[in-house]
Amino acid sequence: MTLTRYAFVKANWHAEIVDQALAGFCELIPAAQVDVIDVPGAFEMPLMAQKLAGTGAYGAVICAALVVDGGIYRHDFVASAVVDGLMQAGLTTGVPVLSVSLTPHHFQETAHHIGIFKAHFVEKGREAARAALMLENLESAVKAA
């Protein structure tokens, strides 16, 4: 039996926080089944997700980023473009593209906030793994029907 492979795309902005999503994901899906791809920021994730999904090599593509509100319009623009792009990548390729992209309006680079978001990203990574496994089971059921 061939094990399903997963692509995990993560933005390098706030890497100390975003990397925790991968840690949570790999608590449920072995790291040996996960190809990790780093991109500069969240804005680059949709194109990479589409390219990876289009290879047919992955059961799902998971994308993780932290897009913070720096007090300018860019936050909303980036968040919207990323979510729309990830959804379009999944719809275009037929491969699930899952988002662990959080967009808090109130984030400060303090030890307290960093700690909160690190823990939150671990849980979000676990949630993405559960979703990927569920979608894999659903896909198998659809093919068997």
How would you explain this protein's 3D organization?
The chain is α/β, with parallel strands linked by helices and 145 residues long. It is built from 4 helices and 4 strands. A 4-stranded parallel β-sheet has the order 2-1-3-4, with helices on both faces. Strand 3 (60-66), helix 3 and strand 4 (97-102) form a beta-alpha-beta unit.
Helical fraction: 40-55%
How do the strands line up in the largest sheet? 2-1-3-4
Cα radius of gyration in angstroms: 15 Å
Number of strands: 4
Provide the low-confidence segments as ranges.
Answer: none
Q: In angstroms, what separates the terminal alpha carbons?
A: 20 Å
Beta content comes to 15-25%
Shape by Cα distribution: globular
List keywords for this structure.
145 residues; alpha/beta; 4-stranded parallel beta sheet
Short description:
The chain is of the alpha/beta class. Helix content is 54%, strand content 17%.
Task: Write the topology of this structure.
Layout: E1 6-11, H1 15-28, E2 34-39, H2 45-54, E3 60-66, H3 74-93, E4 97-102, H4 111-144
Helix pairs in contact: 1-4, 2-3
